[in-house]
């Protein structure tokens, strides 16, 4: 994953004699901030060429940030600074903005921070505010959480979503307004017929499909049944994966959704292999960047996943909210073969994940046949979320949870009650099931390992989206 490019502009006092006296001190404070951020390995810093003490320097610094195409800008204060300089820099420097006050009581960075933040808010710019020593892990984490959210908002702009097929099985929550996406997020929507996948899949060289099939047979367990899952059908699924990659490249798509049912699943093959390995950090040919792929052309699901991907820089889960086991207090998250194999072992190495994966024959829902990518999600804390519309306005619902490890006997017993051939993630929610069922907005959920709650909240504030946390 590429580093997040951020800009830093450090401000000063407009009086020449004060500026000169504090210049070296200001530079040292900036050095500390840069060093702390770059030490994380997540951030690429672009520094303004001057410490800003004049309007001309403020405009110059802002234009430098614009030219460098930073994803957000930090306004840095270690002394008293004239607030209008921050306002003028904001006319050019790309937002979102974070105002950062360093601890310097004799030359009050806190006063500079508050004066500048107040000035920005008066003109309708609402920056995040952070104060403290950059070497303090808690302070650094606050900075990083906002940077991740700001970067995610920035990276959505100009992206293209590829919609393979139309609305699936009457799901209103899976279809969104492309005009609204462009207006609110800067995302373009490209409609692609699913038949394009079939045409290209048929042209994928046989040797290429065979090589991929043998790679999969070597690392995972493939349960051929001679009917719905055969080597020929599996190679058809692999062909769909390569066809999707080719169309994604041709159409310059950034994330996608596949309708699948019923046209593909009735007449050609399921898209489970394509969906799982697009979302994975590897495929049959080696390491790659995950490409968010949502099943059932769930647009808001794909958008939620793309936000997660930019924040966490890991593969993202897509699942049905399938069943609640009352006695075990577990929510079963399952959806055909949609789960990336990454979740089977929580590793970037295919061999670590695929040893836990079974390519299982599909069931009666899918007469065309194919292999479901069956596994059980590795345990760990997770953040689940869904971006959905209520009366036309977006709301983010965030659900902290934990994927739990079950015994082999428990996995078999529970999965047999639901869908034995599909992947499962058994989630213990921080909230109770009654609250979840009352407020959760649809039938699909998405998530990543770890705690991304603060980042999602920052994202919502940046995009002026309401949010609710079910905890």
UniProtKB/TrEMBL annotation:
A GO MF annotation of the entry reads:
manganese ion binding
The family database entries (InterPro entries) matched by this protein are listed as: Fuc/Ara_isomerase_C (IPR004216), Fuc_iso_dom3_sf (IPR038393), Fuc_isomerase_C (IPR015888), Fucose_iso_dom1_sf (IPR038391), Fucose_iso_N1 (IPR012888), Fucose_isomerase (IPR005763), Fucose_isomerase_dom2_sf (IPR038392), Fucose_isomerase_N/cen_sf (IPR009015)
**What are the entry keywords?**
Carbohydrate metabolism, Cytoplasm, Fucose metabolism, Isomerase, Manganese, Metal-binding
A Pfam family recorded for this sequence: Fucose_iso_N2
Do you know which SUPFAM superfamilies this protein is assigned to? FucI/AraA C-terminal domain-like, FucI/AraA N-terminal and middle domains
Which terms in the GO cellular component ontology are assigned?
Answer: cytoplasm
This protein's source sits in the domain of life called: Bacteria
One GO BP annotation of this record: L-fucose catabolic process
Q: Where is the L-fucose isomerase N-terminal-1 domain?
A: 3-158
Q: Where is the L-fucose isomerase N-terminal-2 domain?
A: 256-307
UniProt protein name: Fucose isomerase
Provenance organism:
Petrotoga mexicana DSM 14811
Organism lineage reads as: Bacteria, Thermotogati, Thermotogota, Thermotogae, Petrotogales
């Amino acid at each position: 994953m590429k580093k997040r490019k951020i800009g830093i502009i450090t401000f000063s006092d407009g009086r020449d004699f004060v500026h000169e006296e504090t210049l070296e001190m200001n530079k040292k404070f900036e050095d500390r901030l840069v060093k702390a951020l770059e030490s994380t390995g997540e951030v690429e810093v672009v520094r303004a060429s001057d410490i800003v003490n004049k309007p001309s320097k403020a405009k110059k610094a802002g234009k430098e940030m614009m030219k460098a195409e930073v994803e957000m800008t930090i306004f840095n204060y270690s002394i008293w600074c004239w607030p209008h300089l921050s306002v003028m820099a904001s006319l050019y420097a790309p937002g979102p903005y974070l105002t950062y006050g360093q601890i310097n009581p004799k030359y009050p960075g806190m006063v500079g921070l508050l004066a500048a933040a107040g000035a920005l808010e008066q003109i309708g710019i609402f920056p995040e505010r952070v104060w403290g020593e950059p070497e303090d892990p808690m302070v650094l984490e606050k900075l990083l959480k906002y940077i991740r959210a700001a970067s995610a908002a920035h990276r959505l702009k100009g992206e293209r979503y590829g919609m393979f097929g139309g609305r699936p099985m009457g799901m209103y929550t899976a279809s969104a307004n492309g005009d609204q996406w462009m207006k609110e997020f800067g995302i373009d929507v490209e409609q692609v017929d699913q038949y394009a996948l079939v045409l290209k899949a048929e042209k994928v060289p046989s040797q290429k499909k065979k090589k991929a099939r043998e790679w999969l047979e070597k690392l995972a367990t493939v349960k051929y049944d001679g009917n719905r899952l055969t080597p020929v059908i599996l190679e058809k699924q692999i062909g769909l994966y390569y066809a999707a990659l080719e169309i994604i490249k041709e159409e310059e798509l950034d994330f996608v959704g596949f309708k699948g049912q019923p046209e593909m699943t009735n007449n050609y093959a399921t898209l489970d292999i394509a969906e799982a390995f697009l979302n994975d950090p590897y495929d049959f040919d080696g390491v790659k960047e995950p490409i968010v792929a949502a099943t059932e052309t769930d647009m808001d699901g794909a958008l939620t996943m793309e936000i997660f991907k930019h924040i966490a820089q890991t593969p993202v889960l897509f699942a049905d909210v399938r069943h609640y086991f009352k006695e075990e207090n577990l929510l079963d998250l399952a959806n055909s073969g949609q789960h990336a194999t990454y979740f089977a072992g929580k590793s970037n190495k295919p061999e670590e994940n695929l040893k836990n994966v079974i390519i299982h024959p599909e069931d009666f829902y899918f007469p065309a046949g194919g292999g479901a990518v069956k596994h059980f999600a590795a345990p760990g804390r997770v953040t689940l979320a869904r971006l959905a519309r209520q009366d036309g306005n977006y709301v983010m619902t965030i659900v902290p949870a934990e994927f739990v490890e079950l015994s082999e006997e428990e996995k078999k017993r529970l999965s047999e009650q639901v869908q034995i051939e599909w992947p499962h993630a058994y989630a213990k929610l921080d909230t109770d099931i009654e609250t979840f069922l009352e407020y959760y907005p649809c039938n699909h959920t998405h998530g990543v390992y770890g705690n991304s709650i603060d980042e999602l909240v920052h994202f919502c504030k940046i995009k002026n989206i309401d949010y609710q946390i079910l905890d």
